[in-house]
Amino acid sequence: MLKVEIKYCGGCNPYYDRVALVERIKSRLKGKAEFVSPSNDDVDLVLAVQGCQTACADLSPFQSQTIHIITRIADAEKFIERLLLPP
Fold this sequence. Notes:
Distance between the termini: 12 Å
CATH architecture: 3-Layer(aba) Sandwich
CATH class: Alpha Beta
CATH topology: Rossmann fold
Strand content: 15-25%
Helix content: 25-40%
Oligomer: single chain
Mean pLDDT: 93
Low-confidence stretches: none
CATH superfamily: Response regulator
Order of helices and strands: EHEEEH
C-alpha cells in the first residue's frame, strides 16, 4: 500500500476547504493508500495541499521524495484517478 504524507500550506488565502478535500481523498483511496504522519520515515509520496495557485508552502524538506502538488480541486481528482488506475 502506498504511504502518503500530507503537507498543508499555511492557509493564508485558500480558495477551497483543504481539510475537507483531503478527507475526500482519503475516503476515495481507502485500501489503496495509507496516510501517515510527518514523523514516519517510510513515505512513498508527499501530497502538498496548497490552498491557491501561488503554492508558496516550503517543500524543501521533501526534496528527496516524490511530491504531488494540489492547488485546486481538479488536481485532487487527477491524483485520485492516477492512484486508482491498475498498475
